[in-house]
Amino acid sequence: MELFGIPIQAMMGQLLIGLINGSFYALLSLGLAVIFGLLNIINFAHGAQYMLGAFGAYLLLNKLGLGYWWSLLLVPILVGATGVLVERTMLSRLYKLDHLYGLLLTFGLALIIQGIFRNEYGSTGLPYSMPSQLQGGQNLGFMFLPNYRAWVIVASLVVCLATWYIIERTKLGGYLRAATENPQIVQSFGINVPRMITLTYGFGVALAALAGVMAAPIYQVSPQMGADLIIVVFAVVVIGGMGSIMGAIVTGFGLGLIEGLTKVFYPEASTTVIFIIMTIVLLIRPAGLFGTQK
């Protein structure tokens, strides 16, 4: 069976790959949007923190014998804690300065982290096996759907929507948004704003680490895996709108699908299509599709 002269199995296979990529785009851009939207920090270390998540899972398995499910629980907490430490000891000193200083600091941290792991493990990717419970797949007739990839898509969507709900529909989210607009008023209600900011940054970092754990069985664990992805994720954030939570989610999944379709109909443009879309969006709507014009 063919569609537009292309076998349906090939098209659905590329759409699945696009949806998998879109799941990671959405999770990572969500973490960036949370950090920028609530803290006004452009976190260039996000790709390195994603890589730390994958390496955290790899090290827990090989050093402590803890498998995928333990890593899924522990690694985001541990990497998020390193984010808390970075915010308290470094970023908190830059809030009164130009945003460029925060960008330069996080960019430098990314280079240091990647350099340390490349020195220790080299540039060759390291394998990480998927959990036995999610091996195999389902034959849907028109395509074969691997169980692990279906899990990644569903889990990413649940985490993204839960984060959106907490920030946009709960009292805690209201406090977070208010603290970015007028921290003095929020502080007058007895809320510890600096602690809230620290935990928010840690949460954004934890989202990157969670994506890294889920990516480990699909892609090889490598010091460069974050550097290869972060530029695309920044493009996703710009298209969706800097700081827009729903924009990060919708744009992440949507651009993953567009990238997958481009590989079917015009493979030569598959690596640039997201940047072409970013250019068009910036020309028409500089604040992004879901951003607020100021």
UniProtKB/TrEMBL annotation:
Topology with respect to the bilayer: Multi-pass membrane protein
Q: What are the protein's UniProt keywords?
A: Amino-acid transport, Cell membrane, Membrane, Transmembrane, Transmembrane helix, Transport
**GO MF, one example:** transmembrane transporter activity
Q: Kindly state a single biological-process term from the GO annotations of this entry.
A: amino acid transport
Give the transmembrane ranges.
Answer: 12-34, 41-61, 67-86, 98-117, 148-167, 199-219, 231-258, 265-284
One Gene Ontology cellular component term attached to this UniProt record is: plasma membrane
Compartment(s): Cell membrane
Q: Note one Pfam family from the annotation.
A: BPD_transp_2
Under InterPro entries, the record lists: ABC_transp_permease (IPR001851), BCAA_transport_permease (IPR052157)
| Family matches, as PANTHER family | ABC TRANSPORTER ATP-BINDING PROTEIN, BRANCHED-CHAIN AMINO ACID TRANSPORT SYSTEM PERMEASE PROTEIN LIVH
Q: Which family does the UniProt entry place this protein in?
A: Belongs to the binding-protein-dependent transport system permease family. LivHM subfamily.
Protein name per Swiss-Prot or TrEMBL: Branched-chain amino acid ABC transporter permease
